[in-house]
Amino acid sequence: MTVRKVKFLPSGRIVLVEDGETISQAARKAGVHINAACGGSGLCGKCRVLLESGIIEGGKSEKLTKQDYASGIRQACLSVIKSDLVIQIPKESVLDTGVLDTAVPVRHKARMYVFDIEQLKEEGIFASPVDKLFLELSRPSPAYSIADAGRLIKGLADQYDEHGMVIELQVLRRLRRILREDDFRVTVTLSRSVRRHFRTRVINI
């Protein structure tokens, strides 16, 4: 099977996929989230991406105008990869600034870091390393159709001003079932890093 390289902008993430996979599948492997409220069936038209370079098959539905298609806009879930690609993800196709963490962890050599807790407190960047937050999320409706991951990210942003979340894969796999067990009322566990540029992770729900 031919292997293709797909680069996603503006994140710059690159992933290798097999010829014949869709752009949506490539995005999931790269840990890049593209909004798809319909679950990838091609019905919602929200997974719009811009084909910067490369060759694909399909990617068009009644959700795209002739002008959209002519300018390079495609639906990620309907776009079959046929060459190396460069894909631009418009802001409206991305949920907040969160990124879904689907990458397989790699072993690293152990390192020791020493932190001055008092200094971190003075700089306002120290917080409890593990935090539990209760959320009451909006229920799905024809007027409010959004993927479950997006619903969770939006709830954290609106109710607790939490942004840039990384949702771990184990959480994503259980998210749909757990949200519906108690009518979209959930408690999430966050793991925070004491390092300035590291993202907060959703590790349990």
Quick one: biggest sheet? Answer: 5 strands, mixed
CATH names the topology of the largest domain as: Ubiquitin-like (UB roll)
For the residues shown, what is the average pLDDT?
83
Order of helices and strands: EEHEEHEEEEHEHEHEE
Enumerate how many helices there are, as a single number: 5
* CATH C-level class of the largest domain: Alpha Beta
Share of residues in helices: 10-25%
The number of E-state strands comes to 12
Major sheet strand order: 2-1-7-3-5
Structural class by SSE content: alpha/beta
Rg (CA only): 19 Å
Number of domains: 2
What portion of residues belong to β-strands? 25-35%
CATH architecture group name of the largest domain: Roll
Distance between the termini: 38 Å
Indicate the low-confidence ranges by residue numbers: none
The geometry reads as: globular
